[in-house]
Amino acid sequence: MITNRQFVTIEETASILAVSPATVRNWIKHDYLRPAGRLFRSDEVRALRDDLLSGSVPRLARRANKATATRSFIPDEYIADGTGRETIERIVSSVAASGVGTERALFMLALGMLFRNGMLGTGAAEEFFRSGASGPAGVAASRELREWYGELGGFRLTARYRALLDLELPDQHDALGLVYQSLLREGDKAAGGSYYTPDRIVRAIADETYRDGARVLDPCCGTGQFLLAYAGKTDDPETLHGTDIDPVAVRLARINLLLAFPGREFMPRIHHRNILTGDAPGDGTGFDIVATNPPWGLHYGKQERDGLAFLYPGITSGESFSYILKRSIGLLADGGVLSFLLPESILHVRAHADIRGHILRNTRIERIVRLGRVFKNVFTPVIRLDLVKGGGRAMLKCVSCDGDHAVDQKRFLRNGDFVFDININSTDGRILDRVYGREHTTLEGKADWALGIVTGDNGRFLSPEDGPGLEPIYTGKEVGHYLLRAPSAFIRFDPGRFQQSAPERKYRAPEKLVYRFISKKLIVAYDDRGRLTLNSANILIPRLNGYPVKALLALLNSSLYQFIFQKKFSSIKVLRSHLERLPIPLWEAGDLERLASIAGGIIDGRAGIGDADDFIMERFGINASERDHIRRSLR
Q1: Given 34, 86, 167, 581, which residue has the most CB atoms within 10 angstroms?
Q2: Cα separation of 29 and 414, whole Å?
Q3: pTM of the predicted model as reported, rounded to 2 decimal places
Q4: How far apart are CA 244 and CA 262, in angstroms?
Q5: 524: Cβ–Cβ under 8 A, 6 or more apart, which residues?
Q6: Are strands 489-491 and 512-516 parallel, antiparallel or unpaired?
Q7: Please, what sign has the CA dihedral across residues 563, 567, 569, 573?
Q8: Strand partners, 396
Q9: Which three-class secondary structure state does DSSP give residue 487?
Q10: What is the C-alpha separation between 602 and 621, in angstroms, rounded?
């Protein structure tokens, strides 16, 4: 928190407002913020923050990123068997009505649970307060609560607190964690990456990785969900270790573990600690299992970034899960198993080449499981990544809704940026090897690129109808195969007023290709009229000597290249880095002119897309059965 300073930097301003620095720059352009040189007056920044929270600037409040969200929600995927929702809703309402605050409310719920489970002796919960929160001597649960009570500053058992004692939580693992999740603001979850995991996934990880006597670590344990799953497989709670940066979550995790071993006296080995910068947990001999759902996309300040860059010099992306992965691999014993839940983007996004390379150099990939979307209000697809520290066989199992298949890890080492192209089976591999085995070039360093215009306020700058001084502007929806469809918006081109705009010469290029940005497919249109695009439609201007632009257009729109794109990248976005890795065949001039002519015919309506497909397949030597395989894959 930045306090008692008259001026703040743009990064500090973004942190106070819970938006990105790019959003701050946009708000400057639209006069919502006025910098004093390179700094901002802190009182003005905080005044704008208060306006955002009160909703008095609705347009900005809508555009502020998820970190500003004040609503909470019950994570349905975290409720065992889908039951108990009404109970949780009643508890959340009671906590809100009590007005005692989240942490004190959780303390009272934990106190009630421990008494009902007979873990604090036979007296009433009220006696705990009358005796100065002393509890039965020598009882681990009592020690835990006394310490927490002291941290909360002590308080009297008034009617507001007493009402929470009798609330019974649903009968499931980590019921306290479920309540905590339901009380957290959505913005707090996004900022801290604290989206907890469906129980079925956690149990599957524990079932498939545990072996007798294993020493287990969850380095980002939250309220202890993973540790509870492993607790069901051991009679020794002291083999279970956890750390987390959220002190409330750590308190709940410790109590959860005590509840999981009601007949044992032990001190839970779960600590409030930053796994990236703190001392290593345990005795330094290495863990047999490290399993967690780490935070993704945490925002670090400059000082934190500099410190992490020093501690983890091989990680250049600044991504939180990459730091935690590297640290956790280092904490494994030789032959130890790691199981992490991660965004699917780790498999192929160029920024994550750093951690992919570290994984390939230091571990054997055991399994990659595609889980799809598993977190409520989070649209990113998720994978489970299982690693074994050390060498060994190089074949891994890829699991998806379509079944299992084996993948050769050694191929990942040969891929550019160490891409984990897990979608490729043996038939796919033969086709791809043939295409990439032909003499080819790529677009890397041989093209100009441009993003579509970001206006910063489409309602203000776009018109649904043409008019004086306006011209059409094309969105991703209007990018079709080969052709731009009729525009739905018009704009006055005034780049100085836009949030972001490429140099005009790129939009006005004599020939360019326009591709849809948000798409599972390659959808590319040809433009020779200098038309404008919005940021959902990006621009490619090839600079391949002697290579007709329309020939490249036909390649990118073909079934074969759809197949390559989906197998190699499996992305919902078409990125420049994807297009730069596609093989551009170096055919003879006559073949390229023939393909360009077919593309021209498709644009003019004289030929069909199938004509280009047939020519490309034949030229690459793709036989009939392989063509059928490609078409089935694209369904």
Answers
A1: 581
A2: 46
A3: 0.74
A4: 23
A5: 479, 481, 482, 513, 514, 515, 516, 540, 553, 556, 557
A6: unpaired
A7: positive
A8: 407
A9: coil
A10: 23
In which residue are the tokens 């987390």 written? Answer: 244
Q: Contact, 183 vs 95, CB < 8 A?
A: yes
Contact 104, 152 (CB under 8 A): yes
Separation between Cα atoms, residue 299 and residue 191, nearest integer Å: 7
Q: What are the pLDDT digits (tens) for 255-302? A: 999 999 988 889 999 999 999 998 889 888 899 999 999 998 888 888
- Assigned token pair, 182: 């339901």
d(CA 530, CA 200): 53
- d(C-alpha 89, C-alpha 79), whole Å: 12
Question: How many other C-beta atoms can be found within 10 angstroms of the C-beta atom of residue 516?
Answer: 23
Which residue's structure tokens are 């509870």? 228
User: Does an H or E element contain 97, and which?
Assistant: helix 85-98
Going by C-alpha positions, the residue among 339, 295, 403, 397 that lies closest to residue 205 is: 339
407: left (phi over 0), alpha (psi -120 to 50) or beta: beta
- Cα dihedral across residues 145, 150, 152, 155: positive or negative: positive
Compute CA distances 282 → 269, 277, 289, 292, whole Å. Answer: 8, 15, 13, 17
For the stretch 68-109, pLDDT in tens is 444 455 655 556 555 567 788 888 888 888 888 899 999 999
- Tokens 């191929």 found at: 411
- What is the DSSP pairing of strand 489-491 with strand 471-474? antiparallel
* DSSP reduced 3-state for 423: coil
Find, among 565, 48, 100, 630, the residue nearest to 348 by Cα: 565
Residue 373, both tokens:
């979307």
Residue type, 234: T
| CB-based burial label for 50 (10 Å; 0-12, 13-18, 19+) | exposed
